[in-house]
Design a protein that fits this description.
With about 230 residues, the chain is mainly alpha-helical. The chain folds into two domains: about 10-75, Arc Repressor Mutant, subunit A; about 80-225, GntR ligand-binding domain-like (Four Helix Bundle (Hemerythrin (Met), subunit A), Up-down Bundle), CATH 1.20.120. Helices cover about 70% and strands about 5% of the residues. It has helices at about 5-25, 35-45, 45-60, 80-90, 95-115, 120-140, 145-160, 165-180, 190-205, 210-220; strands at about 30-35, 65, 70-75. It has a three-stranded antiparallel sheet with strand order 1-3-2. Strand 2 and strand 3 (about 70-75) form a beta hairpin. Helix 1 crosses helix 3 (about 45-60), helix 2 crosses helix 3 and helix 6 (about 120-140) runs antiparallel to helix 7 (about 145-160).
Length: about 230
C-alpha cells in the first residue's frame, strides 16, 4: 500500500527531530538515544513516524538498535550525514534548486584547484571522456551512455582538485541528482555543445589557464541552475 504524502512529511519531521536531539544533547557514538516509546512521548510523534525515522537513520549508519537497550548513536560516515541532509533539504521549497546551486558552486570553485593540481594521467582520462562522448554524438548513442560519460568527466574533474572533502560532497550530491533527474537531452546540437565545452575545459587545464577553465566550466554549468 503506497505511503501517503502526509506520512512521508511526518517521517521527515521525525528524522529532523532525532538529528536535532542528538546534536542538542551532544550525544557521541555509543550514547543512548532512548527507546522508541520514550522518543514518542518526549517528541510527541506517532509510533509509525518514530519507527520509520529510526529505520532511515539506521540505514544511513547514524543509529543502531540494541535489544533491550534501546537506540544508540553510531559513528556514521561523512557521506551518510551528507546524504541525510540532502534528502531532507531536497523536500523543502526550492530545495532542489538550492542543491543544484551548491553543486554549481562546488565545481566552479574546485576547477581552480584542479587547474593547479591535475596530473597528466587525469588529463588523459578527461581527453578519453571527450573522445568517447564525441563518438556517441556521431553514432547517436543512447541518452544513458551520454549521461554516464558526462558524469564520469565531472567526477574526474572534481577528484583532480586534490580535495577529498570537495570531491566527496560533490559525489553525494551528484548521485542524488542521478537518481531523481531525467536522462540526457536527445537534441544532438545540445550534445555537441556539451562535448565542445568539455574539450575547451580540458584544453584550458592542459595550458594551466585557470581563468579560462573557470569561465568555460561556469558557462557549461549555467544550464543546470536555470
Amino acid at each position: 500500500m503506497p505511503v501517503s504524502v502526509k506520512n512521508n512529511s511526518n517521517t521527515d519531521q521525525a528524522v529532523e527531530m532525532l538529528i536535532g536531539r542528538i546534536q542538542s544533547l551532544g550525544l557521541r557514538p555509543g550514547d543512548s538515544l532512548g527507546t522508541e516509546k520514550i522518543l514518542m512521548s518526549e517528541l510527541g510523534l506517532s509510533e509509525r513516524s518514530i519507527s520509520e525515522a529510526v529505520q532511515r537513520l539506521r540505514a544511513l549508519g547514524m543509529l543502531e538498535s540494541i535489544k533491550k537497550a534501546g537506540i544508540r548513536v553510531t559513528e556514521p560516515q561523512f557521506e551518510s550525514i551528507l546524504e541525510a541532509t540532502i534528502m531532507l533539504h531536497a523536500r523543502k521549497e526550492n530545495g532542489l534548486k538550492e542543491l543544484a546551486e551548491l553543486r554549481f558552486a562546488l565545481e566552479a570553485g574546485a576547477v581552480r584547484l584542479t587547474a593547479e593540481r591535475i596530473t597528466k594521467e587525469e588529463l588523459t582520462q578527461l581527453n578519453e571522456c571527450v573522445e568517447c562522448q564525441q563518438k556517441l554524438v556521431e553514432n547517436n548513442g543512447s541518452p544513458e551512455d551520454m549521461k554516464n560519460e558526462d558524469e564520469k568527466f565531472h567526477q574526474i574533474l572534481l577528484k583532480a582538485s586534490g580535495s577529498p572533502m570537495v570531491y566527496r560532497q560533490h559525489a553525494v550530491i551528484s548521485e542524488y541528482f542521478r537518481k531523481y533527474s531525467g536522462t540526457d537531452d536527445h537534441d544532438n546540437t545540445i550534445r555537441q555543445m556539451t562535448v565542445w565545452e568539455h574539450g575547451q575545459i580540458v584544453t584550458a587545464l592542459e595550458n594551466r589557464n585557470v581563468d579560462y577553465a573557470a569561465a568555460m566550466l561556469s558557462k557549461h554549468l549555467s544550464k543546470t541552475i536555470q
